[in-house]
Amino acid sequence: MKKNIYFVFILPLMLATSCQDAEMTEALVEKDLSCNCPVELHSPEPGEIQTFGDDVNSLKLTSYNGTTVMEGDIILTEEQIVLMTAAEEGSDAGRVESAGQAVVANRWPNRVVPYVINSSLPNASRVTNAIAHWESRTNYDFVQRTTQTNYIEFIPSNGCSSHIGMIGGRQYIYLGSNCTQGNTIHEIGHALGLWHEHTRADRDYSVNINWNNINSGAVHNFEMYNFNSSGFDNGAFDFGSIMMYPSSAFSSNGNPTITRKDGSTFTAQRTALSSGDIAGAAFIYNATQLATPSGVRAVHDGDETLTVTWNAVAGASEYWIYTLFPGQDVRPKLYRIRSSTSWTRELKSKYRSGYRIWVAARNANGNTSIAREASYNW
């Protein structure tokens, strides 16, 4: 199954139609959507490719008028991007263990997911049917939103996309007119914390990526991101996952972009959750999650000293401090703090404007909480 966000998944199922064999230009590739193929895209427009982090720890994403998208249809928040590109201060190891977990992952409490279907969304039955599919095969409970603060709203768009995990407040699942019930099941998977199968850390044991066949504007959608978080890649690689790309995805010349190790091609399915998908979704919520640190405050003495304090988290053995100085840092820095709920560093007052800090808790088993940004008292 696939990588999770707080551990994520992806997994098996059946096949689906692939797009035509015709030569695919950049515009045509993005039309996997309009031919009802399995590849989901936030928009048929090309967007702007941006690189976050540095050469050691970089992340290439597509920006659509301020919305930042990973792998075609996964919408990331600013905080998620910061934490996914963080590296430990004083280390050349690149992305640190469990950094991805601290980043991308809020689970829906008690597996209850409040939702709203926007009144202007056409064919609302694809949403209700997709929800019924999830409820019939997993122990997630989708409830129509009343006053809940955190919820999903299904809204009309020109593509298919979703945030990853629960981000807090209202979050969207975007559905274009050509997004099917199967595409909706896929996007709900992202909202619960599931990633794509083809970029999991162990994918090279199961598939070949044919880089020369990938459209130049989509190469970054095939980059392998190893966030090293506990349970990030669960189970065996799953060709049947509803989160899997087909061999034809983003082809620039009609030749396969992904093949099995023996060179054979495969289709992808958007029909139902596989047994692996189901197991992966269950695993996400069975893992122990620490509480997010509360009371995170950053205070500057007006001279050269910055002090960050927070409330202790039950079960935490250490805390991870992420810092980012826009315009100075090419990637966030990570500091590990043990047996303390405060951290002090030198920071000249002229540099404090724009300086940002997050704190996450971590236990001895390697489980990491969601990171919380500090409130600043400058």
Please describe the topology of this protein.
Elements: H1 26-29, E1 48-52, E2 59-64, E3 67-70, E4 74-76, H2 78-84, E5 87-88, H3 99-103, E6 112-117, H4 125-137, E7 141-144, E8 151-156, E9 160-163, E10 170-175, H5 181-192, E11 207-209, E12 258-260, H6 275-286, E13 297-300, E14 305-309, E15 318-324, E16 333-338, E17 342-346, E18 356-362, E19 372-373, E20 375-377
Helix pairs in contact: 4-5
Summarize model confidence as the mean pLDDT: 81
Gyration radius, in Å: 21 Å
Number of helices: 6
Which class do the helix and strand fractions yield?
Answer: alpha/beta
Oligomerization = single chain
- The number of strands is 20
Q: If strands are numbered along the chain, what order do they take across the biggest sheet?
A: 1-2-3-4-9-10-8-6-7
Shape: globular
Cα(first) to Cα(last) distance is 46 Å
State the share of residues found in helices, binned by percent. 10-25%
Approximately what portion of the residues adopt beta-strand conformation? Answer: 15-25%
Largest sheet: 9 strands, mixed
Which parts are unreliable, with pLDDT below 50 for 5 consecutive residues or more?
2-37, 90-103, 226-232
Order of helices and strands: HEEEEHEHEHEEEEHEEHEEEEEEEE
Describe the model.
It is a single chain. With 378 residues, the chain is an alpha/beta fold. The protein has 6 helices and 20 strands. The radius of gyration is 21 Å and the shape is globular. The chain starts with 25 loop residues before the first helix and ends with a strand. The relative contact order is 0.19.
